[in-house]
Design brief:
Number of helices: 6
CATH superfamily: Class I glutamine amidotransferase (GATase) domain
Strand content: 25-35%
Radius of gyration: 16 Å
Strand order of the largest sheet: 2-1-3-4-14-13-12-9
CATH architecture: 3-Layer(aba) Sandwich
Largest sheet: 8 strands, mixed
Distance between the termini: 24 Å
Order of helices and strands: EHEHEHHEHEEEEEEEEEEH
Number of strands: 14
Helix content: 10-25%
Length: 215
């Protein structure tokens, strides 16, 4: 069972439908007890970091998320849901994230050193991800799968990077530590590659480790 954390921001039907397409049973909930006891968790996100983290805390979901992660539950953060996993975001101020992963979130132009002068922001549309190592989440997706992005901010991290994408400069587009995964793109909008990733996530073992090899 895939539990999608519904904290009242964004249309979750598209990612719910994508999981159903690959044969996964899905439920949406904002019940803290259901989140804490879930078998697999997905944290989606659209819009502003502060609005998302504030709503998670207002609904008393932060501790259940942490408890589930501590239990080894496979966890997937998507887009802003990935960014929420980091310690700090500098999107229109400074905001404390969930602190699951080391690093921070910044605007493209704040870390670009002029490399984005001729590129529009947000980074919107199809781009490739380049895996840094083999991992079950990326099994069967190919060497450089094309996926769909819509974002102006991205994590700045030097550890747990599972794949990078280049838009003016390289940034982490997939991260992983133990049972926690994050993707900056939208798998539910990424056609075959995205569905493949969601199917892989739905069958991950609870004990998946960062250096697991692709079969």
């Amino acid at each position: 069972m895939i539990t999608i954390i519904d904290y009242g921001i964004g249309n979750l039907r598209s990612i719910e439908k994508a999981f159903e397409t690959v044969g996964a049973a899905v439920r949406r909930t904002d019940d803290p007890d259901a989140v804490a006891s879930a078998e697999r968790l997905v944290l989606p996100g659209v819009g502003a970091f502060r609005a998302c983290i504030d709503e998670i805390r207002r609904r008393d979901l932060e501790r259940p998320i942490q408890e589930a992660i501590h239990r080894g539950v496979p966890f997937l953060g998507v887009c802003v849901g990935m960014q929420l996993l980091f310690e700090t975001s500098y999107e229109k101020g400074e905001h404390e994230g969930l602190g699951v992963l080391p690093g921070y979130v910044a605007h493209f132009r704040e870390v670009a050193d002029g490399a984005l002068d001729d590129l529009p922001i947000p980074h919107m549309g199809w781009n490739t991800i380049e895996p840094t190592r083999a991992n079950p989440l990326l099994r069967g997706l190919g060497d450089t799968p094309h996926v769909y992005f819509v974002h102006s901010y991205h994590p700045v991290a030097h550890k747990q990077v599972l794949a990078t994408t280049t838009y003016g400069h390289a940034f982490p587009s997939v991260v992983h530590r133990e049972n926690v995964f994050g993707v900056q793109f939208h798998p539910e909008k990424s056609q075959a590659a995205g569905l493949g990733l969601l199917e892989n996530f739905s069958t991950l073992k609870r004990t998946a480790q960062a250096d697991d090899a692709v079969a």
